[in-house]
Design a protein that fits this description.
There is one protein chain. With 91 residues, the protein is an all-alpha fold. The protein has one domain: Orthogonal Bundle (Non-ribosomal Peptide Synthetase Peptidyl Carrier Protein, Chain A), CATH 1.10.1200.10. Helix content is 48%, strand content 0%. The longest helix is centred in the middle third of the chain and has 15 residues, at 42-56. The chain is globular. The two termini are 14 Å apart. The relative contact order is 0.21. Residues 8-84 form the Carrier domain. InterPro entries: ACP-like_sf, PP-bd_ACP. Pfam families: PP-binding.
Length: 91
């Protein structure tokens, strides 16, 4: 994975959320925000995960993708960083 991609994981995630949750402003996408509060239902949840995999060139482990454990934007950022092999602090 390129250094540029490592530095832009946060932007990639926010961009993917904005693509899937049309009309949501970037400022509303905070780490403590629940995905459901952004209009991400079960179908959009799957779309979002696939889009992040594409943008970040990663593949999530299916065992990490439970809706109960992946509820907030921060949860999604942490999972993406772990999957990409990037410490959370570099997001």
């Amino acid at each position: 994975m390129s250094t540029n991609l490592n530095l832009n994981l946060d932007d990639q995630i926010v961009g993917a959320i904005q693509e899937i949750a049309v009309g949501v402003e970037a400022a509303a996408i905070t780490d403590d925000r629940l995905l459901t509060e952004l209009g991400i239902d079960s179908l959009k949840y799957v779309e979002l995960l696939v889009r992040i995999e594409e943008l970040c060139e990663i593949t999530f482990n299916e065992s990490d993708l439970g809706v109960e454990s992946l509820r907030s934007v921060g949860d999604l950022k942490s999972l993406t960083a772990r999957t990409a092999g990037t410490p959370d602090g570099l997001l």
